[in-house]
């Protein structure tokens, strides 16, 4: 499935957070959302990306935005990751990768000659009306943060 393009309505979802709460994308209407997808909790690139959003979070909040991190890891893994790095934003559980599929960032990857299915590191900035304002697919951890900040203005 292709990723949504700028101007498209962001695919709606409902899932569990790292705290066990249920959350829907629609809960954030009226705010901008940086929805970022990462492959795995507590791995080097994912930690770089998460800590980049953490370090810039006051600036992101000033721009009427929130950050939501999404990976296929479960609630306990997300809790550990969030606590270990003092992340001020919510992590979303996507164990069935339905959210990643809806955003076109679940697919075949390869490492060391082995092929497997996984998340492509990416982010989407969603405006106050729920439309895609920026889409960055296959982005490096550091560039993801920089580009999201640029998109927020």
UniProtKB/TrEMBL annotation:
Keywords: Antioxidant, Disulfide bond, Oxidoreductase, Peroxidase, Redox-active center. It comes from the Bacteria. Pfam families: AhpC-TSA. The keyword Isomerase does not apply. The keyword RNA-binding does not apply. GO terms for biological process: cell redox homeostasis; cellular response to oxidative stress. It catalyses: a hydroperoxide + [thioredoxin]-dithiol = an alcohol + [thioredoxin]-disulfide + H2O. Its EC number is 1.11.1.24. GO terms for molecular function: thioredoxin peroxidase activity. Residues 4-153 form the Thioredoxin domain. Coiled coil: none annotated. GO terms for cellular component: cytoplasm. The active site is at 46 (cysteine sulfenic acid (-soh) intermediate). InterPro entries: AhpC/TSA (IPR000866), Peroxiredoxin_AhpC-typ (IPR024706), Peroxiredoxin_BCP/PrxQ (IPR050924), Thioredoxin-like_sf (IPR036249), Thioredoxin_domain (IPR013766). Belongs to the peroxiredoxin family. BCP/PrxQ subfamily. Monomer. NCBIfam families: PRK09437.1 (NF006960). Thiol-specific peroxidase that catalyzes the reduction of hydrogen peroxide and organic hydroperoxides to water and alcohols, respectively. Plays a role in cell protection against oxidative stress by detoxifying peroxides and as sensor of hydrogen peroxide-mediated signaling events. This is thioredoxin-dependent peroxiredoxin.
């Amino acid at each position: 499935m292709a990723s949504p393009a700028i101007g498209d309505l962001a695919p709606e979802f409902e899932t569990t957070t790292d705290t066990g709460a249920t959350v829907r994308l629609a809960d954030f209407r009226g705010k901008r959302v940086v929805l970022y997808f990462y492959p795995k909790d507590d791995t080097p690139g994912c930690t770089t990306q998460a800590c980049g959003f953490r370090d810039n979070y006051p600036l992101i909040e000033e721009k009427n935005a929130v950050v939501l991190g999404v990976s296929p890891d479960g609630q306990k893994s997300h809790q550990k990751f969030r606590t270990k790095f003092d992340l001020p934003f919510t992590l979303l559980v996507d164990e069935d990768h339905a959210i990643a599929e809806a955003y076109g960032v679940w697919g075949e990857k390869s490492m060391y000659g082995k092929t497997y299915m996984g998340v492509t590191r990416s982010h989407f900035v969603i405006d106050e009306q729920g439309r895609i304002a920026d889409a960055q697919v296959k982005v490096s951890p550091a560039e993801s943060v920089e580009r999201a900040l640029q998109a927020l203005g």
